[in-house]
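__Record contents__

***
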Amino acid sequence: MTYQHILYEVSDKIATITLNRPDRMNAWTATMERDVRHAMEAAAGDDNVRVIVLTGAGRAFCAGADMEALQAIDPSEIRRGENTPPFDMNRRADWQTRYAYYPAIPKPVIGMLNGATAGIGLVHALYCDLRFAADNTVFTTSFARRGLIAEHGINWMLPRIVGHANALDLLMSARRVSSEEALRIGLVNRIYAPERLREETYAYARDLADFVSPSAISVIKRQLYDVPFQTLAEATIDANREMQIALKGSDFKEGVASFVEKRPPRFTGK
């Protein structure tokens, strides 16, 4: 597929999806929405991909919705997402909505936040599994300052990442948040100097791709995203069932063998 508003490449088992409207600070468009969805599906289905990195071109990750499109938006357009087909029909319906499908991807998704992350850009960052940011990145929910509400599930996701009080603060004030504060409240996992962000992010991604079992990552990711809907007993029963499967898998045998033989693992994801 030819993409219009993103770049897509695969190298060293890592798929990189780059929001590519640098002249507009990667402002979100319907075309970008379609491109990102297709690229995520391609990466999820590619056996040569074990990690996905989502980032932006230029000086921003995503500065929010394209304001020209927002000015002309039809209020009924918001319901268009209700017709979005499920990303994976075998996963919870909660992770099948218009933007909340990243948790249904059976591979780690790392948000490499290289600059301004605002509005719907922040929504996408939150749905990534991990967030590594440049130390000059500024974050804002922005919605309340545009007369809008907390949209696309950010009202559910943000409190689970930064806590209820911090989420209320960020959503009601829509103030600018520095990368240092974002790290302190758990909004991002790590911050780096801009010139080191790419190197450090890909070093982490390569470590996952080369030394961690893809089958284990897939199950662990599903477990963590299912937990908010489970009791402790249900989570434990689920873990016991998955443990039985893992003990029969080739990745478990390879994990033990590579440790005993003191060599890098050769995981197949089986």
